[in-house]
């Protein structure tokens, strides 16, 4: 049975692997193919409707999927990512710390790691989710409103951060990779992981190899992404060079962060009730990595 893997512009690793799939006999051997789509915010819906069996996002969607009753597990993760950008305000604004954003609007990419990042930063600052007006807004629309001075704050990282910063001087109030680890995660449906573990291992090994190629030759990776989501190769190169590369088994530290943030989501009312996320992490499949 074929496995359909989602690739979208917000996950660079899977977008690159999708562009290298013809060069991977392992993927062909296991009948692994890619569905390329435009917005990572649609990943949960694509899992629910059976379009995808495997995908990659930030760490937040697996929590939201579990809260909606979808059986999924993270089987691979990146290192924490200290990307350029984060929670931005205009440099000419009166906002100098997170507490200054009480009752102010903040634009977040829908169904993404932005919610987890902001929730962690709010808790660290002693604030509640309802102390600010955080809303899911399509990134391009949020950026336009922010640049025009209509939206007080936005969460953005490269390549969108670079676009904003070239037109509007900004101040970064909080950066990803600290209070929130900001990892990319790779996850699949429980039934896929049980039914075809060897195929999932092969996919993960191909992803590890592709990420190694990115680290060794970022310019080549950027050229493969040229035009994706309207960004040029030079735009993508900034994003590629601003992060570390590699895919690793999810560990206890990651699981604890996920549980802590699931508890925080329930406390803030972002999910309807507390959940146990222990079955959303599976470290057994990313083993015996190729040298």
UniProtKB/TrEMBL annotation:
Organism: plant metagenome
SsuA/THI5-like domain span: 37-221
Membrane-spanning segments: none
Protein name: Alkanesulfonates-binding protein
Signal peptide interval: none
Pfam family, any one: NMT1
């Amino acid at each position: 049975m074929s496995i359909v893997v989602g690739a979208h512009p917000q996950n660079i690793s899977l977008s690159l692997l999708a562009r290298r799939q013809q060069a991977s006999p392992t993927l062909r051997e296991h009948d692994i193919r890619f569905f390329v789509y435009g917005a990572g915010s649609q990943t949960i819906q694509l899992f629910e409707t059976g379009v995808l069996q495997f995908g990659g996002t930030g760490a937040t969607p697996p929590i939201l999927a579990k809260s909606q009753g979808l059986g999924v597990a993270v089987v691979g993760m990146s290192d924490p990512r200290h990307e350029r950008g984060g929670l931005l305000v205009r440099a000419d604004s009166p906002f100098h710390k997170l507490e200054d954003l009480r009752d102010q609007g903040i634009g977040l990419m829908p169904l993404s790691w932005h919610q987890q990042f902001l929730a962690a930063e709010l808790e660290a600052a002693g604030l509640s989710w309802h102390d600010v007006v955080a809303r899911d807004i399509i990134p391009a629309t949020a950026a336009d409103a922010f640049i025009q001075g209509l939206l007080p704050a936005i969460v953005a990282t490269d390549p969108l951060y670079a676009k904003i910063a070239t037109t509007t001087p900004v101040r970064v109030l909080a950066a990803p990779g600290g209070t929130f680890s900001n990892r990319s995660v790779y996850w699949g449906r429980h039934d896929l992981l049980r039914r075809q573990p060897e195929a999932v291992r092969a996919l993960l090994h191909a992803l590890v190899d592709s990420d190694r190629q990115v680290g060794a030759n970022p310019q080549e990776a950027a050229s493969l992404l040229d035009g994706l989501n309207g960004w040029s190769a030079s735009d993508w190169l900034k994003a590629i060079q601003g992060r570390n590369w590699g895919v690793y088994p999810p560990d206890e530290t990651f699981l604890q962060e996920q549980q802590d943030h699931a508890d925080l989501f329930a406390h803030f009312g972002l999910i309807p009730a507390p959940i146990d996320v222990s079955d959303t992490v599976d470290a057994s499949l990313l083993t015996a990595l190729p040298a």
